[in-house]
Amino acid sequence: MTKTTEINQETRYKLNNGLEIPIIGFGVYEIPAADTADLVYQALKEGYRHIDTAVGYRNQAQAALGVRRFLNETGALRESVWCTTKLTNQQQGWEETQKALKEIAKDVAEAISYVDLVLLHSPKTSSRKRLDSWKVLEEAVIKPESSAIPIKAIGVSNFGVPHLQELLAAARIKPVLNQLELHPWLPRPELRKFLKDNDILAEAYSPLTQGVKLQDPELLSLETQSGISKAELLLNWSFLQGFVVLVKSAKPKRILDNLKVLPKKGEDRKVFLSDDIWQALDKPNSHDVVTWNKQDPTEFPIDIK
Ligand SMILES: NC(=O)c1ccc[n+]([C@@H]2O[C@H](COP(=O)([O-])OP(=O)(O)OC[C@H]3O[C@@H](n4cnc5c(N)ncnc54)[C@H](OP(=O)(O)O)[C@@H]3O)[C@@H](O)[C@H]2O)c1
């Protein structure tokens, strides 16, 4: 028995606002600003159609320039590329978020005219700040003409169930997705069930554990047993879970290898894991956080004022 799914490099998942997001995204966390435009351009040339940056990565302007170069050189439409950015914790709050949107506009508007998705990067502020920011983002979606930059969709990152419940109770617009650290050592079954029940997509970051688990003896033995590289095993696991998957490499060969885990449209090949490997990677009780200094941001107390 094998676990398989019918997805390819061009597959998009429908969000709760009707927009469709490409299922593989090129993440640019820790890519130096000086290299970002080139690597984003190369990733798009290879076939990625989704770029994930953040104000905190200090490379969103360069990421947008990479997108613009790709659009200019290929004649592809702006709508063919999905661009996400995120507000820092310091940019949460009513005035702070209004100012942040102006700063994002300054960085990216000329290159990409609008942002597909803006996320609150983490819940690690206060109820008041999270909710005030959300109101500003909602306003930007509802009245794009009043926003410093048009925004198509809004979402969150690193939110736990209590943060989401609080937001959903107050929101006019639901978050389209929650971007989370997700991999076999951090499968977050309860949080994912809450997302599913509320029609909020799970987007996986650090699917390769930022490299931390790539020397895990069990993973190495699965690689030997299957003849499938450990990176591909982990990406397959993520795609088979139904996540939108964000993966980063600063190395052109790996950028391509990671994309090629998905078949090209029309190619006679499927993403799969054998039952043995699927079982071996199934660790529902594991909660091993490798990012955010190992302090799970989804567990940040909700009631800090
Ligand atoms: N919202 C959040 O709080 C948050 C947090 C973290 C990440 N993210 C987003 O998610 C994206 C991806 O996550 P990530 O960058 O943390 O980690 P990741 O994609 O799990 O891992 C990246 C690491 O794996 C290496 N790598 C990439 N492809 C490989 C391959 N085929 N074989 C072996 N090693 C490989 C990379 O090295 P090289 O670069 O040397 O190839 C890098 O060290 C980020 O770029 C960012 O956009 C969001």
From TrEMBL:
SUPFAM superfamilies: NAD(P)-linked oxidoreductase. Substrate binds at H121. The active site is at Y57 (proton donor). Pfam families: Aldo_ket_red. It comes from the Eukaryota. GO terms for molecular function: oxidoreductase activity, acting on the CH-OH group of donors, NAD or NADP as acceptor. InterPro entries: AKR (IPR020471), Aldo/ket_reductase_CS (IPR018170), NAD(P)_OxRdtase_dom_sf (IPR036812), NADP_OxRdtase_dom (IPR023210). The record marks K86 as: Lowers pKa of active site Tyr. Residues 30-262 form the NADP-dependent oxidoreductase domain. Keywords: Oxidoreductase. The keyword ATP-binding does not apply. PANTHER family: 2,5-DIKETO-D-GLUCONIC ACID REDUCTASE, ALDO_KETO REDUCTASE FAMILY PROTEIN. This is LANO_0G01728g1_1. It comes from Lachancea nothofagi CBS 11611.
